[in-house]
Design a protein that fits this description.
It is an enzyme of class 2 (transferase). This protein is α+β, with helices and mostly antiparallel strands. The chain has eleven helices and seven strands. The longest helix has 70 residues.
Length: 497
């Protein structure tokens, strides 16, 4: 073997391969990052704002329908304020939806707004009729399919946007995986080229080249702080060492970047949790004051308030309770996410808790003409947090009554089975679509049939119930058939009597 000429040519070819692999790795990573950035930019800059605008338009029209319906049912003209506000906001919301829609979605936005305008036309004629009159009822019947047509168009656009968002996320994930694969393949190829070069060289370059290969192996195994010696060996070997160090520095830079991204995501999650907790606390203080003054007004002497004023106070009270419950749910969710939501378990009788919960829900069921059937086989001693289990019972019973139509029934059954205390709440309500049941305990999830029928709710209750049951070493299952009914079964460890 000639002294330096042959070795130089051999190593030159090896260096060219290594440099090409390094540059290719960098270009592949850069291309993936650019395309991934474009996908994320489309998601956050186009799709998500359009999703929010679509949801806002639906909320505006839903508020208008609710206000008009309340006026026609009660005759209270103040309830038309919601309708008028929604009528004013509709134009702004529609313009915003059109502005954000690109050419692929503009036709859907225009179709949705056109269907909404058809409903508005009927709603305006309905508003002019006397409450509870035959003409108002006829216009209401005409408006139902028009409103449903709008809801269907809104849902179609929502599904299209959701699919597009999922596609962008999948595209970003696939690009990231492809970039990692390309970098890995190129790194392995660089290692093979280095090994082949070492075999074909003389003893003069064997040791320094072996050291370079060893360093490269360390980098490939994740030891990104490993560096090759660039001061020993021929000039060609020193160049290889420098190339390996460049690759290691690039990999370390990528790792630091990934760590920074992870830290930012964690910080954003912490900020979100802190924001939810702070806002909920800040809302609860004025809400407590509102509730106090409402109680004073409701407890006033007869004659101080007219019947109409008392009805308005009752409406305010109900909505205040809904807002208070929502704030409590958000606070609980914040504690769950921060890991501070625990259960103080003490001995108690589950049968008594169920009996009290059924008594509390009785007036609501009676108002909705829903029958309550109770079958308690107690006493049933368990160890649990009384307040949290009360919350579980209130949520399950409220859901059962809320989703059960008039003349339906809700059956509550409690018994001991071996070493378990079993609670069953069965209703004859609208049920849950089978393809949606696996998402019941996901935060903010609401079944499509409940949304279409405008049944109020936030989708937080069952997620909190699931956490409470888990904290009590219990299980919860749901069996449901659409338009037939739902049965929720809770099982908790029972105590010795």
């Amino acid at each position: 073997m000639r002294r330096d000429g042959t070795v130089g040519r051999l190593l030159s070819r090896a260096f060219a391969v290594l440099v090409a692999l390094i540059v290719g790795s960098g270009l592949a990573e850069l291309a993936a990052v650019l395309v991934q950035h474009r996908a994320v930019q489309q998601l956050t800059g186009e799709v998500q704002p359009l999703q929010l605008a679509n949801a806002e338009l639906r909320a505006v029209l839903t508020d208008a329908q609710r206000g008009l319906r309340g006026y026609l049912l009660t005759g209270d003209e103040q309830m038309l304020d919601t309708y008028y506000v929604a009528r004013s906001d509709f134009t702004v919301a529609g313009d915003e939806l059109r502005r954000l829609s690109d050419r692929d979605h503009l036709a859907s936005a225009d179709d949705q707004i056109a269907k909404a305008n058809l409903w508005w036309a009927v709603a305006e004629r309905q508003r002019l009729e006397p409450p509870r009159s035959n003409a108002a009822i006829q216009y209401a019947e005409q408006g139902k399919p028009l409103f449903q047509n709008f809801i269907t168009a809104n849902e179609d656009l929502r599904f299209v946007l959701a699919a597009r968002a999922d596609n962008l996320r999948n595209q970003a994930t696939a690009l990231q995986a492809a970039a990692i694969a390309v970098v890995s393949v190129l790194t392995v190829a660089a290692a093979v080229a280095a090994v082949v070069t070492a075999v074909r060289t003389s003893r003069r370059i064997t040791r320094p080249l072996g050291a370079v290969v060893e360093t490269l192996d360390h980098v490939r195994d994740g030891k990104l702080d490993a560096r090759a010696d660039v001061t020993s060996g021929p000039a060609e070997i020193r160049a290889v060492a420098e190339a390996v160090n460049a690759a290691a520095e690039q990999s370390e830079h990528i790792r630091r970047h990934e760590e920074q991204v992870s830290a930012r995501l964690q910080a954003l999650d912490t900020v979100k949790t802190d924001f939810m907790s702070t806002v909920s606390h800040e809302l609860r203080t004025p809400l407590t004051s509102i509730s106090g003054y409402l109680e004073l007004m409701r407890d006033s002497e007869p004659g101080e308030l007219s019947d109409a004023q008392r009805r308005m106070v009752e409406v305010i009270s109900r909505n205040t309770k809904r807002l208070r419950d929502l704030i409590e749910d958000i606070l609980t969710l914040s504690r769950i996410e921060s890991g501070t939501y625990t259960s103080d378990r003490t001995p108690l009788d589950l049968a008594k808790l169920v009996d009290k919960a059924v008594v509390a829900i009785g007036p609501v069921a009676a108002k909705g003409s829903v029958g309550l059937h109770l079958d308690i086989r107690g006493p049933l001693p368990v160890r649990g947090d009384g307040a949290q289990l009360d919350r579980v019972l209130d949520n399950l019973l409220s859901n059962a009554v809320k989703f059960t139509p008039a003349e339906g029934t809700v059956t509550v059954h409690v018994e001991r089975r071996a070493d378990r205390a079993v609670l069953k709440v069965a209703d004859t309500g609208m049920g849950i679509p089978s393809d949606e049941q696996q998402a019941l305990f996901v935060r903010f999830f609401r079944a499509t049939n409940a949304i279409k029928q405008a049944v109020p709710g936030t989708g937080l209750g069952l997620a909190i119930v699931r956490t409470i049951i888990d904290n009590h070493s219990g299980t919860i299952t749901v069996e449901s058939t659409e338009n037939v009914g739902t049965t929720v079964t809770v099982s908790l460890p029972a105590e010795t009597a």
